[in-house]
TrEMBL record:
<protein>
    <recommendedName>
        <fullName>ROK family protein</fullName>
    </recommendedName>
</protein>
<dbReference type="Pfam" id="PF00480">
    <property type="entry name" value="ROK"/>
</dbReference>
<dbReference type="InterPro" id="IPR000600">
    <property type="entry name" value="ROK"/>
</dbReference>
<dbReference type="InterPro" id="IPR043129">
    <property type="entry name" value="ATPase_NBD"/>
</dbReference>
<comment type="similarity">
    <text>Belongs to the ROK (NagC/XylR) family.</text>
</comment>
Length: 129
């Protein structure tokens, strides 16, 4: 089964599709500002995930889990983005619930400053080091 990574930042959103062995199958970057605020961005994000999967002949059912990094502060208890300073419109956003509901896969969130640096891009590996 494959894994999907979503990294939401102040300037870009990165999507990364990887296999169970830690190989990157595909990645995509989108300007965060092109997505708008959370009410517009979350449906667009789901749409972009669908495009990435279709472009690489994958189905959502083949995704084991989704790892999500977002700017802090976040509540891992309520799984919400609280008040990210670089995304001022994204206040108290129930992002994990939204993505789980729309994508039907397990979603795990971590604040960007706590993430483990992983290489993104063709030829890289998503396996921890």
């Amino acid at each position: 089964m494959d894994l999907l990574g979503i990294d939401i930042g102040g300037t870009k959103v990165a999507l990364c599709l990887g296999d169970a062995e830690g190989n990157i199958i595909a990645d995509k970057r989108i300007a965060t500002t092109s997505l708008g605020g959370p009410d517009q961005a979350l449906p667009k994000l789901v749409e972009e995930v669908g495009h990435l999967l279709r472009d690489h002949n994958r189905e959502l059912e083949e995704i084991r889990a989704i790892g999500l990094t977002v700017p802090g502060p976040v509540s891992t208890k309520t799984e919400r983005m609280l008040t990210p300073p670089n995304l001022p419109e994204w206040v108290d956003v129930p992002i994990v619930h939204y993505l789980r509901e729309k994508l039907g896969r397990p979603v795990f969130i971590i604040k960007i400053s706590m993430r483990i640096p992983l290489p993104l891009g063709r030829g890289g590996s998503i396996a921890p080091f």
